[in-house]
Design brief:
Strand content of chain A: 15-25%
Number of helices of chain A: 26
Number of strands of chain A: 27
Distance between the termini of chain A: 30 Å
Oligomer: heterodimer
Number of helices of chain B: 2
Structural class of chain B: mainly alpha
Helix content of chain B: 55-70%
Largest interface: A-B, 35 and 27 residues
Structural class of chain A: alpha+beta
Order of helices and strands of chain B: HH
Shape of chain B: elongated
């Protein structure tokens, strides 16, 4: 089969612009690029199969850019946009070239890491809609966002960590240079004046640097202590501060040992770990934010003078009239006042099949209008919508969930008091049972703190986290929560939603022998004209058919073209019988018996394998669905799931999870719909496909991309492995402490020994964590 | 001893210069998009979009 010259996907035989292009949009985009002389793009690019193909949307609604336009310096207007569909650097080049060739554009720069675009132009010369039109036509999707709200805090924190890291790195390198000389001097007879000079220079570099770099740890330590807890940062802060102070004191009295290098190198290592950790999670977060932004829809409101206006949902008021085009997602709750159509409610109820609405029926925010334009009188906005109610339920569920304490903090709780009392005992012991001065005894005590300073311990978890999240991200699994992996390793029950999770959420034609090739071709010709999911499924099976003439769509019934009718059983007047199970379409031709097409929501390709693999691991698998009993039963049977419930409301799902929790189980919930969101919040840990409703993705701890269910298994596997590695790392660092603490207590630790011991233990921990990145194919 | 008095300040100044350069580049946004920067060198000059 040919692949499309523009988007690279397969060209269906029915393509009107074949064999080069798969659709008219792609052909238009290709000629646009030829026209402006940017066709070199096709030579340069490399297609990333995980990214959405570069195919122009014909039915996408342009978002309202004007809300997000801001003033920039020298009279420019500025707009921040998220770009979807970026495959490689050539895409960046293409977008920037297309934009800068527009009249009035002052600058256009795409950030390839975050896939965001900053656009500046002269507002007197042009409008944002005009500027971005060619980019949309090529097939990218642009979503405006407010940079002040999206991740500004994370970026600030990350930059602070990076600055601290640079300062610590500089100071550590220089102090180490001097320290090595001092250590060498101990053996080759360096005179005390030179040693003292070196110590003073070290102090001059290390002290300001330590003060600067310890702040992130200090803040977190103070926060923890204020709320009556300890975390890893408490012993770090105390250890580093005391080591520096003690070294300064030693320097002042010309003592032989100073620990400036230990203090600052320790900070450097820890900052590296912390920076990587925050970066890994920051990336996952920004990807998730991107996905969320995509589903935010503006509402088209019809004002009294008849003009149309795009408003963000929170600006729409009760009693307004909203227009919803066919194929558009409804943004508000309301009552239909004009038109009739079919509505896809799968996001809210989990039902696969669309329901019909007519004048007077209620529609809900989050549902999809399939057939015909509707006018809706807005009945609820903001807090009062069904959507907001689900969000409230979700918040309640979240509060009910016991707050999980990260392993590192639990260890720190036990570790910090032990270490600190050990140091105190060392001091008291030396003062009481020996004749040395108290200053020397204090030095020994500080040495205990330095040697036990949890360098390896503090790295034990973050290093594993960084490597695990990197490995998962390469497979399209995004970790949103820092403790998700730890919680995942504890689970014993997996609860699935059906529609969109176990299944792909779209119906497929069943080859049950009730129809012939010829029937299919004739029916598909009619179906071509419709956006109804069943009609589309029919067309997928017969893509080469040309669309029939004069097709008319009757909302709630079906399609009509002359004497031919394709639609529901009721509309065609076929008698009810036992075969009436699951979604179906009937096709009627003059003087022929009506033909039945049955459909089924297809399971994800690897669903059965994943479920059986989960059971093999000893996990209990359950299915909770909002769909009808017959459908759920069939899916459960085909996957071998024994425990299932159908027709669950969001509250039912929450209740079932509460039951499981009461039995002492740790539940992993995988779901996508809005109706799953409260259950996702209530579960111990949760996961959503990236096609899920935005609320669900926000709630879920993990988001996965792609058509396969394998990521569920992969996430559990990586979680278990990293749990093991974290435990090993803790073991290694304790082992190291057991070995070194006696030396420190005996007062035998010199800065050289401390430096060697500390860096070896850190390296061992890092090397151990690296083992996780070796990928085993599933 | 005298060569130390010269070499230590030299080492420190060079190090500090490096640090200052890094902090400057961080502030001017050169670390915001590492992937993009790595790829931009491959674009030909005459294809560069003009930057305002």
């Amino acid at each position: 089969m040919e692949s499309c010259q523009h988007c690279g996907s397969e060209v269906p035989a029915s393509s009107p612009v074949g064999p080069q292009f798969c659709c008219r949009g792609c052909a238009a985009a290709h000629s646009l690029l030829q026209g402006v002389g940017l066709s070199r793009y096709y030579e340069w690019r490399s297609i990333d199969p995980t990214v959405r193909p570069l195919r122009p949307d014909d039915d996408a609604l342009a978002p309202d850019y004007s809300v997000h336009v801001r003033q920039a310096e020298n009279g420019s207007a500025e707009l921040h946009l998220m770009v979807e569909g970026v495959h490689c650097a050539a895409c960046i080049w293409l977008i920037e070239s297309l934009l800068s060739r527009q009249k009035g554009v002052r600058s256009a720069r795409v950030n390839m890491t975050t896939r965001r675009l900053v656009l500046r132009w002269n507002p007197e010369e042009t409008t944002p809609e005009e500027i971005v039109a060619p980019v949309l036509q090529v097939g990218y999707r642009l979503i405006p966002y407010d940079p002040a709200q999206l991740g500004a805090e994370t970026i600030r924190n990350e930059q602070e960590l990076l600055r601290c890291m640079a300062v610590a790195g500089f100071a550590a390198a220089n102090v180490m240079l001097l320290s090595v000389s001092v250590w060498a001097g101990h053996f080759s007879g360096m005179d005390w004046a030179t040693r003292s000079l070196f110590h003073w220079i070290s102090a001059l570099i290390a002290l300001p640097a330590t003060v600067y770099c310890v702040r992130p740890f200090f803040r977190s330590a103070v926060n923890a202590l204020r709320s009556g807890r300890t975390n890893m940062d408490v012993p770090i802060t105390i250890g580093v501060t005391l080591a520096s102070a003690m070294s300064l004191f030693e320097t002042m009295r010309d003592g032989p040992h100073a620990y400036f290098d230990s203090a600052i190198t320790l900070l450097f290592f820890l900052l590296v770990g912390r920076y990587l950790d925050s970066r890994a999670r920051g990336r996952a977060r920004s990807a998730a934010e991107e996905l969320v932004g995509l589903s935010a829809v503006a509402v088209t409101v019809l004002s009294e003078d008849g003009s149309r206006q795009l408003l963000p949902p929170h600006k729409v008021e009760e009693g307004m009239t909203a227009l919803v085009a066919a194929g558009e997602r409804i943004g508000v709750d309301g009552v239909v006042i004009e038109g009739a159509s079919d509505i896809d409610t799968s996001l809210i109820s989990g039902e696969t099949m669309p329901g019909t609405v007519r004048v007077g029926d209620r529609v809900f925010a989050g549902t999809l209008n399939l057939l015909a334009p509707l006018r809706i009188k807005v009945s609820a906005v903001g807090e009062r919508t069904l959507l907001a109610e689900i969000v409230r339920m979700m918040e309640t569920a979240e509060q009910g969930r016991a707050k999980y304490i990260a392993v590192a903090d639990r260890v720190a709780r036990g570790y910090a008091p032990v270490v600190h009392s050990l140091a105190a005992l060392t001091f008291l012991g030396w003062v009481m049972f020996s004749t040395i001065e108290w200053q020397t005894a204090l030095l020994y005590a500080v040495a205990v703190l330095i040697i036990t300073c949890p360098c390896a311990l503090a790295l034990a978890v973050p290093v594993v986290q960084v490597i695990a999240s990197g490995r998962l991200m390469r497979q399209g699994i995004l970790l949103k929560s820092a403790t998700a992996l730890e919680r995942l390793a504890l689970i014993d029950t997996v609860v699935f939603d059906k529609t969109g999770t176990l299944t792909l959420g779209q119906p497929e034609l069943l080859e049950d022998g009730a129809w012939s090739k010829e029937d299919l071709a004739e029916a598909a010709a009619l179906a071509m004209a419709s956006k109804h999911p069943l009609a589309r499924a029919l067309v997928r099976q017969a893509p080469e058919v040309a669309v029939a003439a004069n097709v008319e769509e009757v909302p709630g019934c079906g399609l009509k073209a002359g004497d031919l009718r394709l639609g529901s059983r009721r509309w065609l007047g076929v008698a009810e019988d036992d075969t009436a199970q699951g979604p179906e379409l009937w096709f009627e031709r003059p003087n022929r018996k009506p033909v039945r097409f049955a459909f089924q929501d297809q399971l994800r390709q690897d669903a059965a394998e994943v479920v059986s693999a989960l059971r093999k691991r000893g996990l209990k698998v359950e299915l909770l669905s909002g769909d009808r009993e017959a459908t759920v039963a069939r899916v459960a049977a085909s996957l071998g799931i024994e425990r299932w419930r159908a027709a669950c409301t969001p509250a039912d799902k929450c209740a079932r999870l509460a039951e499981l929790a009461a039995e002492g189980r740790h539940v992993f919930m995988v779901g996508d719909g809005l109706n799953d969101a409260p259950a996702l919040a209530a579960a111990d840990v949760s996961m959503s496909p990236s096609t899920a409703a935005d609320v669900s993705q926000n709630t879920a701890d993990v988001v996965f991309q792609g058509h396969r269910l394998g990521p569920v298994l992969e996430a559990i596997e990586v979680a278990e492995k990293s749990g093991r590695l974290v435990k090993q790392n803790f073991g290694l660092s304790f082992l190291y402490n057991v070995g070194t603490i006696p030396i420190a207590v005996a007062g035998l630790v010199t800065p050289l020994i401390a430096a060697i011991a500390m860096s070896t233990s850190s390296l061992v921990v890092i090397a151990n964590a690296m083992r996780l990145s070796r990928r085993k194919t599933l | 001893m005298t060569n130390l008095l010269l070499l230590i300040p030299v080492a420190l100044i060079l190090g500090a210069l490096g640090l200052a350069a890094f902090l400057w580049s961080l502030r001017s946004g050169q670390f915001d998009d590492l992937d993009g920067a790595a790829n931009r060198i491959l674009f030909d000059d005459d294809d560069r979009p003009r930057q305002g």
